[in-house]
Design a protein that fits this description.
It contains 10 helices and 12 strands. It has 277 residues and is an alpha/beta fold. The longest helix has 22 residues. It is 37% helix and 21% strand. Helix 6 links the parallel strand 6 and strand 7. The strands form 2 sheets. The chain has a 7-stranded parallel β-sheet with strand order 8-7-6-11-9-12-10. Strands 1-4-3-5-2 form a 5-stranded mixed β-sheet, with helices on both faces.
Length: 277
């Protein structure tokens, strides 16, 4: 195992890692964030994300998984005092075995591969990091190829978002963009290359019910802000709107639930089309 640095006090380095938990500006400046948990760290390694450092408590008996990670994954090794590991962990649980300091990848839309069966999600100005994470998890589960977070929004790399993805963040390319302009330039490049990409928005008064729309074609699903819905610019740019039929007294679903329902329908249609071929 590489040489190990020890940190036993709340020195400048520890305070920097601690800041990554709640300081978005610091995460952006350093281009790194914290990851904990067996599945998320394992998926980060599996999908080739750069691990800058592995933090652990060398006074405790580590699991076989932790020993393997520390023995095989590249990155600096830092042994923290038990109370410092606890400060970086979940407030409601015990200290994590290992915390990974992971590099934030470039916000480059070209990370998202758009082929003939493309299915992607764009989340417009989300305010809840938990909703971002939930939609990333659903998009990954139902076969999407990428996620875009547009506008002034909660942070993809906020611990609440990372935790809510349960590791899917590392397998599903997720890109932050400032405005519709960058996305539409990317869309037009795809269309110019021969991909008939359709922009589909969810709306209570949609052009069609979700199960009457053909989701077997290349689709970018637009999901609106939790409070105000899609921005006017996106409403003008979308090609079609679909609605989710509902019974009972509920008038609408929250953003994450609505996105999940539509993604499931897209996955169902695509699976049925493959079986029919």
């Amino acid at each position: 195992m590489p040489s190990v640095q020890r940190v036993t006090s709340r020195n400048a380095r520890f305070q920097q890692w601690e800041a990554l938990l709640g300081n978005r500006k610091k995460r952006n400046q350093l281009r790194e964030f914290l990851v904990q948990g067996v599945r998320p760290i394992s998926l980060a390694v599996e999908y080739g994300w750069r691990v800058r450092a592995l933090l652990y408590d060398d006074s405790r008996k580590l699991s076989g998984w932790a020993r393997e990670v520390l023995g095989t994954v590249e990155g600096e090794r830092v042994a923290l005092a038990p109370e410092l590991m606890a400060e970086l962990g979940e407030k409601s649980g015990g200290a994590p075995e290992v915390v990974a300091v992971v590099e934030v990848p470039a916000d480059d839309l070209e990370r998202i591969e758009a082929g003939p069966e493309f299915l992607g999600v764009l989340f417009d100005r989300p305010t809840s990091p938990g909703n971002i994470g939930s939609i990333i998890r659903s998009a990954d589960a139902f076969g999407a190829h990428g996620m875009i977070v547009s506008g002034h929004a909660a942070d993809v790399y906020d611990p609440k978002s990372v935790r809510a993805t349960t590791g899917s963040l590392f397998s599903l390319p997720t890109v932050r963009v400032p405005s519709p302009a960058e996305v539409m330039a990317w869309v037009e490049r795809r269309r110019a290359a021969g991909l008939p990409l359709v922009l589909v928005a969810t709306d209570e008064k949609g052009d069609a019910d979700v199960y009457d729309f053909d989701f077997t074609q290349p689709v970018l699903l637009l999901v609106g802000n939790e409070t105000s819905g899609l921005a006017g610019a996106w409403r003008e740019l979308c090609d079609v709107t679909v609605s989710i039929p509902m019974a009972g007294a509920a008038s609408s679903l929250n953003a994450a639930n609505a996105a999940t329902a539509v993604l499931y329908e897209a996955s169902r249609q695509r699976a049925a089309a493959r079986r029919a071929d």
